[in-house]
Amino acid sequence: MNNRGDSIPQNAATPKMNRSTFLRASAGTFLGSGLLLGTAPPAGADPLRPRDVRTTKVADLTGPGLTTRFRMEATDLGIPTRTPDGRMLFVFGDSFEQARVGGGWWRSPTALHSTTTDLGSGVQWSGAVGGEAAQQLWDYEHDNPVFTTVLPSDVITLGDSMYLHAMVNNGLGNVVWTEIWRSDDSGATWVHTGAEFAPDLHQGLFQLLTWAAGDDGYVYVCSTSFDRSRPIILHRVPAEAIADPTAYEPWGHRDGVWAWGNPPTPILEGAFGEMCLRPIDGKWVLTWFNAGDYRIDGIIMDTPTSDLYAAHRRTLVHGGRWGEEDDSHVAQLYGGYIVPGSTLSDLHLTVSQWNTEEDWPYRVMQYRVQDFDT
């Protein structure tokens, strides 16, 4: 399917910025500036103790010499999941051939496979989706009359199928719709499921999402808007109905009671960017780019409906200034996705970095967080 022009929302005609302006402005405004103010947690919430974890940089995962053979030296995100055939698939956003934003052959999403088992030594790439060079996962033209680019939100494996939620964007800060794609061959090819969501669903809080399967037959979904300034809400959907937009059931507070089926109520206030929800070691972990406080945070909870204000919360990677970075401080950081094989005491993240003044670095890195659970 090309351009999905058969279901254009009414706001799709909103004037859009040109490509270079969109890429530079979106990065500077939303992806790493750390200037957006979040909402403070309510009185009585546990204070953060940001020095409790040990964070170290493991490796750069993309860039010259690392992903040159895939013709994608510049890229971001790197959202990972375990594939049905046992490998790992990492899904990337706007990708370019040369080591700079806008550096030729613009594609999004793209994906790389890995068979790495020793995360401590760094993720190694075993191949690209599409052949020798990383191809766009489905065919469309960037900067077409309907939209600018399509960005991945999260990917999940359910049985023999993989599902990718993606945001269709028509310029800076303007999501025109979101959609779900499916792969039945461990990420080699993708087909549209027919599932599409309006950009104003739940007052815009169902644009950017992360999801994970529980052992109860449900997929749990945390979502927010794609402007890195708002809180998150929670849904669940039967795993077999993940591609049915009508099957998503909100979690909300009404008449003093939290319950499924109530109108969705924010489960945590703040300025949320990219998120990653995963079950690990019998617990549930949520990591996210905290745009308001310019860092990547993480929470450990017993269940997806746990009180997040009372949950175990730590800062995992801090934002920093160019020229003043160290293992735990990264300039213009965002992302923060959990790599399969992580544990609560040895968590591995893909972290993105974008120098919006120079257009390089624009890359994905691997960070290791130890003692997150202490």
Summarize the structure in words:
The chain has one helix spanning about 20-30, and strands spanning about 55-60, 75-80, 90, 110-115, 125-130, 150-160, 160-170, 175-185, 190-195, 210-215, 220-225, 235-240, 250-255, 255-260, 270-280, 285-290, 295-300, 310-320, 330, 335-340, 345-355, 360-370. The strands form 5 sheets. A 5-stranded antiparallel β-sheet has the order 10-11-12-13-14, with no helix packed on it. It has a 5-stranded mixed β-sheet with strand order 15-16-17-18-19, with no helix packed on it. It has a 4-stranded antiparallel β-sheet with strand order 1-22-21-20, with no helix packed on it. The chain has about 375 residues and is mostly beta strands. The longest helix has 13 residues, at about 20-30. The chain is about 5% helix and about 40% strand. Residues about 1-20 and about 20-50 have low confidence and may be disordered. The termini are far apart. It is built from 1 helix and 22 strands.
